[in-house]
Amino acid sequence: MNPTRRPNIVFVLTDDHAANAIGCYGSAVNATPGIDALAATGVRFDRALVENALCTPSRAAFLTGTYSHTSGVTTLATHLTNDHETFITALRAAGYRTAMFGKWHLGHGPAHDPAGFDHWEVLPDQGEYFDPEFYTPLGPVRHEGYVTDIITDRALAWMAAQGDEPYCVLVWHKAPHRPWLPHPRHADLFTDPIPLPPTFDDDYDGRGTPAHHATMRIADYLTDIDLKQDPPAELGYADRAVWKYQRYMQDYLRCVAAVDEGVQALTGFLRERSQFDDTVTIYASDQGFYLGEHGWFDKRFMYEESLRMPLVLSYPARVAAGSTDALVSNVDIAQTLLDFAGVDAPEGMQGHSLVGLVTEPDPIPVRDAHYYRFYEHDDHMHHVWAHYGVRTDRYKLIYYYADGMGLPNTGDTSYPPEWELFDLETDPYELTSVHLDPAYAGIRRELTLQLWDLQQELGDSPHPRQPVPEGRTR
Ligand SMILES: [Ca+2]
Fold first, then answer.
1. 217 forms bridges with which residues in the sheet?
2. Separation between Cα atoms, residue 10 and residue 267, nearest integer Å
3. What is the DSSP string of 123-173?
4. Which pLDDT belongs to residue 4?
């Protein structure tokens, strides 16, 4: 490696792409040769977790290297103000050329437009799959074609125009976000039956009220817009659920196919120019997604399928290929990229650089517990309760504080908070909370303290409904 040469950075982020739909993560439902080839040259993170499984807050966490309570970007309605320092503003101040193409979803207008970029072209809010409009510093522009291809092509054109200065480009896709509109060239993919996940028929026995209360069940809550076809009239409830799963997954996985082709185009471009080894190339998603696990689509819950994001990092000049099960977070990415670029992280970033983790022979884990908080309490479409919790190597403790608001449309304002505790070693699918199991009393006590202390350490506050654990004060 030439130590005077700072790496280019190509950061591909997708929206709602679950690790369970990526070949190198053991997908049973599709192949992703582009992402797999990237992973084969770099590190696959098997326990990369988000701090808030929702598009807007997660994007803010990637950019600012802070948790939602710090950035103030807690829900879809709270947008990022552009007075925040981000890894982009820091890279640019250090001489990097910076650009952003694709889904921003952090707000528009003078207070929220992308800041710190030499160039940006972003979709308005969620954007459109076909013939999408993009907002740019010079006003809106519409491109004909398919959104995933356009984002990749616009990024490639910008990369091709760069000179000797190092650059950082964000290629942030809309896909495979709902309503999952694939390109017609992929219409023939996934016509064979797609295997069902083992928890497709989950009845939520063993979980608290929130899992029962959520309205994300494929059988009941996918809409006509999601499905695009009516189920055959002769099907009964169970068969119709499976039919809806197939329909959902076909379109979801076809959208992923275009993303994977985009990854191949980007890595192909870098390889053709002999830049691949000296480039930090990242593939990640803004959180995971339910692909029929627990009978669900969507995200939000702190359960593994949405808590976990795929994260692949390639930088052959400095990083040996492999995988790691260290607990890492989306708040770590900003400091990691700055560290690779040799740029000091702005004060106030709350993650950890992962550079040591992926370059040292016997790395020290960056954390022993991950903090999660989801704020959108009982929204009208998904009805997931707000909650926070801690996940360690083996256990997960979740507190649903119910916000003191009760269930909607019931007049009930006194619904009690609930806890869940999972032993991920004996119960990897999180089917049975052991919170009240006397055998786990010691673990429960320990995790409750760990959660309390982690909130203090990160500057968040426990919800007023949460009792103060013994040995601590509010
Ligand atoms: Ca998302």
1. 296
2. 9
3. ESTT--SBS-EEEETTEEEE--SBHHHHHHHHHHHHHHT--SS-EEEEEE-
4. 60
Q: pLDDT digit string (tens) for 289-307?
A: 999 999 999 999 999 999 9
Residue 276 DSSP label: G
Residue written as tokens 């990229």?
337
Question: How far is residue 344's CA from residue 339's CA, in Å, rounded to a whole number?
Answer: 7
CA distance 104 to 87: 15
Q: Angle formed by the axes of helices 237-272 and 147-160, to 10°?
A: 10
Distance from residue 323's CA to the centre of ligand 1 (Å): 24
Surface-to-core class of residue 238, CB atoms within 10 Å of its CB (0-12 exposed, 13-18 middle, 19+ buried):
exposed
Q: Is 460 helix (H, G, I), strand (E, B) or coil?
A: coil
Q: How far apart are CA 408 and CA 400, in angstroms?
A: 15
Gap from CA of 100 to ligand 1 centroid (Å): 17
Strands 43-45 vs 322-324: parallel, antiparallel or unpaired: parallel
Can you give the length of the chain in residues? Answer: 474
pLDDT tens digits, one per residue of 46-84: 999 999 999 999 999 999 999 999 999 999 999 999 999
CATH 3.30.1120.10 placement within the chain: 371-458
Contact 59, 66 (CB under 8 A): no
Q: CATH 3.40.720.10 in the chain, residues?
A: 8-182+246-368
| CATH superfamily label, 8-182+246-368 | Alkaline Phosphatase, subunit A (3.40.720.10)
For the chain, the farthest-separated pair of C-alpha atoms sits apart, in whole angstroms, at 68
How close is the Cα of 54 to the center of ligand 1, in Å? 5
pLDDT in tens, 195-249: 999 999 999 999 999 999 999 999 999 999 999 999 999 999 999 999 999 999 9
Q: 317: CA distance to ligand 1 center in Å? A: 31
CA of 126 to the centre of ligand 1 (A): 10
- H helix or E strand, kind and range, residue 283: strand 279-285
User: Is residue 1 pLDDT above 50, yes or no?
Assistant: no
Phi/psi of residue 242, nearest 5 degrees: -65, -40
Q: Which of 291, 248, 327 is nearest to 17 (CA)?
A: 291
Q: How many angstroms does the Cα of residue 60 sit away from the middle of ligand 1?
A: 12
From ligand 1's centre to the CA of 6, what distance in Å? 31
- Give this prediction's pTM: 0.97
CATH code for the part of the protein at 371-458: 3.30.1120.10
Q: What pLDDT is recorded for position 470?
A: 92
